[in-house]
Specification:
alpha+beta, about 25% helix
Length: about 160
């Protein structure tokens, strides 16, 4: 069964569609690099939809770690603004309520692996947003949007938190 719905041309580089994302409990956008075939895009969608509770909980923990790290990086005035929108002690899956416009990104694969990223907007990093990257159901990265994709060198996924 096809998971990605309403596929259409976005621009000269991407197709766009939508998918129901159980992790977020809602429909989200999907952007598919035109070089990635539709079968591979569906594999990525299935992998994302099929994340286990343990995998989702791990992703949420790392997003919460990122949120906490950014609160330490910003000045006190900005932290107060953030805390008005996102509770400083937010934890678990509740953090997902504070990610705006999550989008599943499917880039052309390199090899047999299934890799994708999910990016969106967040109050604690308003300029660069948030992104997490998965490859074969292993979390590679959580942090600001870097557009690394699942095929970067491992050292590029290193973060300070």
């Amino acid at each position: 069964m096809k998971q990605i719905k309403n596929i259409k041309e976005q621009d000269e580089y991407f197709l766009s569609g939508t998918i129901y994302a159980p992790m977020f409990g809602k429909e989200i956008d999907v952007l598919i690099e035109k070089e990635a075939d539709s079968e591979y895009a569906e594999q990525c969608a299935e992998a994302f939809i099929g994340l286990s509770d343990a995998e989702v909980n791990h992703i949420c923990k790392r997003i919460c770690d990122y949120h906490s790290y950014m609160l330490e990086e910003w000045n006190e005035e900005f932290v107060q603004e953030i805390n008005e929108k996102v509770p400083a002690d937010v934890s678990g899956r509740d953090i997902l309520n504070y990610i705006e416009k999550p989008t599943l990104y499917v880039m052309m694969p390199q090899g047999e692996n299934v890799g994708y990223s999910v990016a969106g907007y967040c109050e604690w990093e308003p300029e660069h947003g948030i992104e997490f990257i998965m490859k074969d159901n292993i979390l590679l990265y959580v942090g600001q949007q870097e557009c690394l994709g699942a095929w970067a060198d491992p050292d590029e996924y290193e973060v300070d938190f």
